[in-house]
Amino acid sequence: MSAARRSAVGGALPGQRTYYDTPVVATPVWKPSIALYFFAGGLAGASAGLGLAARLAGRHRLARSCVLAAVAGAALSPALLIEDLGRPERFHHMLRMFKVTSPMSVGTWILTAFGGASGMAALSEVSGRLRRLGRAAEWASAALGMPLATYTAALIANTSMPVWRRARFHLPFLFAASSAGAAGSLAAAVTPPEESAAARVLAVGGALAATAATGLMERHLGEDAEPYRSGTARRFARLAGPLALAGAATMAAGSRSRPATVAGAALVLASSLVERFAVYRAGADSARLTVR
Amino acid sequence: MTTATAPRMGFFTDSSLCIGCKACEVACKEWNQVPVDIRFLGRSYDNTGALGANNWRHVAFVEQVVDGDVRWLLNSDVCKHCTSAACLEVCPTGAIFRTEFGSVVVQQDVCNGCGYCVPACPFGVIERREGDGRAFKCTLCYDRQKGGLEPACSMACPTKSIQFGPLDELRRRALAREEELHARGVPEARLYGADPQDGVDGFGAFFLLLDEPSVYGLPNRPRTPTKDLRGTWGAALAAAGALAAGLAAAVLGTRR
Predict the structure, then answer these.
(1) Are the Cβ atoms of A150 and B49 closer than 8 angstroms?
(2) Any idea what the CATH number is for the domain that residue A157 is in?
(3) What is the ipTM of this complex?
(4) Kind and range of the H or E run holding B96
């Protein structure tokens, strides 16, 4: 209903068609630590996958960076998730059951198993012992890392928040690309240049793919993409694309220069983080699309 | 979805009989010890606003000008106890369960306040209670039903606008009431949530309304998000596969 009609006298609204413009759905109560987890979990998952690929190709220093990035993300993630709970001391109630209808339940098990596998892989990598077990753990963490990077998209898509729900076929690809860009960037920044070519390529490719996925998602949403263009999501959504493109360009242009690689990596990492916050905020803001 | 032990029980809220007395809201709060959080909204006699952790019944007050006259629409909203309940399906702890009466209830000793049920519900019914951290909503007075009593709100309703009983019987009664109103020259009377084929496979607590659901703050075409979960999981798996392919391509493409 139009603003002019809404501002009519007192309570007697001619032809009132909405309930005082109150959204039909409730706004999510998730804190920003959840957006941070989307970033950290995606980074960890994609790092584990890149680590295994690097190991199989014999690039062991790149593999080492990735294995350590994976375990760092795996260690940070549960803290971010538990922090958000209304009753943090009951975090272990998540492990009472396994429910396919709840992506949060499936994700809890993925993250738990990933934590064990990436921890084992890192332990073997750092100590130089239990090599065979370490390799097996790398395979397991890589296999778990892929869905770890994308299930969070399924989680938010499986709600009644319009911009998440209607983008359920786009969000997983956006999250996958964003995770790839972040993992590639971090690995490129901390690995000697002669072994980090794959990481640089992944960073550039991930940044470009995430920007493309965002564009496709907003086009698909059409008018309903409005929460990305106004309110609190706007400043994040407006930053993500330019950061990604600037980062990709810096990395591509300065592939032989260490400072350029680090600067480009920082930009791509920032774009990945900012994109997650844009999605997180827009979802909550999109409750207002449900007044009718 | 209902168990064989008892017929599925529910509410039929006939808004054409509601006088806006809010006895249902008061009785619910008294019985269930739901905290009071009154805010002066200053837009009508409704200072409850919407359903939430601390409002398990909400009487909507709608004022419409029809042919120069004011028409009052009143309706006591409540949890729909959906046949396909989003809150129950997404709850990762199993705190939300289906009772032997077919109602959807949160076990407060299990809920860890993950908050997934809040944006999942297509009606915005369930919310996390501030200062407590757990999710709360109508239980269809599970404890009273266990003791053979009817829920507090329907018992307190002075006009029988809120009727409690076996869902089959309520649906029959509602269809008869709708026909009666149509015959009496109220063509706008319509049932909401009485159809087991709708987006949530039917409500356990359904309504008779005198205008579009959106006028009362209800979604016109509610749909349980998990109905589309197969496609959502498919997309997540495909994206995971694409990620693996991208990683492999980056490494293979940079072979020396």
Answers:
(1) no
(2) 1.20.1630.10
(3) 0.94
(4) strand B96-98
